[in-house]
Amino acid sequence: MANVLSRKPRQNAQVSYQAFVVNLTHLLKGNLQQRGHIVRRLATENRVTTSSEEMISLIEEFINGYIVAVENSPEYTSWSIGTTHESNKKFAQVLLQDLFHKEHKYTDHAPEHQLSYIPAQHFDEEAIEDWLAKTPLIEHMMNTVFRAIFPVVDRIDQVLGYTGTNNIWGFAFCTPTIPLCTGALWEQQETLLNIPSLLLLNHNLPVELRSQWKMLFSTSCHGESFSTLMKNVVQKGPTVVIVRDKDNYVFGGFASVSWEIRSDFSGNSRCFLFSLSPNMCTYTPSGLNENYMYMNINKQTLPNGLGFGGQLNHFGVWINSTFDMGHSRAMPLCTTYNSPQLTAKQEFGIDKIEIWGVGPSAEDTANGKDVVGPSILDVDPEAKAILTMIDRGHHSEGLRPEDPVANSPSTKSLPPL
Considering only CA atoms, which of 310, 314, 313 is closest in space to residue 337? Predict the structure, then answer.
């Protein structure tokens, strides 16, 4: 760590406890320039630039570290999923897309052409800073790893009074990256998701829907019945639909509103399409039309089934109500989502479908009350010493349960960072 925080690497470097605390605080609440320097030094020790392969290797390490950091959390243990080295590398390339392909959008070309291409480039700290600013998910994962390695940071936050979205790193820890899973019978079924695909999809959902996923329908449990699918998903809120075809392509879409049986399209600009295998990519609305999502049944003159994007009979993703076939017709791109054909063949055979309801359940939205406990300075003298070292002072001194106005901003405002 001494070498990472130093501009000049030193062999057998040592730091004092006070310097360690100060530098650790700077590491976790640093600006983009400081964090860009740290990322570059973690990727390569002796050069002023880092290569594409070195960045992929570093992000893979952060992915592995993130899994270790959260593996005992209730959210993580509610899932029965894993990952592979290949999946982690694909995910690392997705996280690095704004660094590797900053001059081109993924939707400019078929995703397999860009995702399989690793540019032979080197990146300086300015390029890394720009990438970090555009990639909040990797910042969240990095911070989770650092907090697991250095748990003292949580005490610093407590002392300073920064909780939830008001913490020293500056973004929302109260928004989980891995959601709580409910409704899945893991002894009877497997999911099409793995850890990287779950992280990618959940991060692309609206913030208020990221806390919980509930299994609503799976062909492995409910059979190949479109009537059962409709019964389980109609008027059940936002959903994520995932399909695997007979060629082992995995893809789908996010429906931002409840499904309903109707003869026209519904949804809004929060909907998106995605590909999970063989490549990982998300596709957001183009703005050319509002044909986001469609469901219909028992109509002789209209398509019967479930679809996303495009137009009637030419959907970006389509599942026929007979459950035998579907299509992804996008030549050259789906007009609604700017997505390419998401399957090997335009017409595909359906192997498996699963649909997840996303967002908190009604009981989870009940209002709670914040309880003001004793000041951490009363029970943690080491934290008190840390505050002195980082020149923050005893700002929580005087915030006591007996003080009836302790939470009033007008009388006890916390210091800004």
Answer: 310
Q: At 115, is the secondary structure helix, strand, or coil? A: helix
User: Which residue matches tokens 């392969």?
Assistant: 53
pLDDT greater at residue 219 or residue 388: 219
Tell whether pTM > 0.85. Answer: no
pLDDT average, residue stretch 245-256: 98
- Ramachandran quadrant class, 89 (left: phi over 0; alpha: psi -120 to 50; beta: rest): alpha
Closest CA to 224 of 323, 351, 354, 356: 323
- What pLDDT, on the 0 to 100 scale, is given for residue 10? 54
d(CA 98, CA 104): 9
At 208, is the secondary structure helix, strand, or coil? helix
CB count in 10 Å sphere of residue 112: 13
Type of residue numbered 212:
Q
278-291 tens-digit pLDDT: 999 999 999 999 99
| Cβ neighbours of 361 (radius 10 Å) | 14
Angle at 216 between CA 210 and CA 220, to 5 degrees: 120
Structure token digits, residue 127: 């390029």
- Tokens found for residue 81: 């999923």
Radius of gyration of the chain (CA): 24
Give pLDDT, residue 368.
42
> Is the predicted pLDDT of residue 62 greater than 60, yes or no?
yes
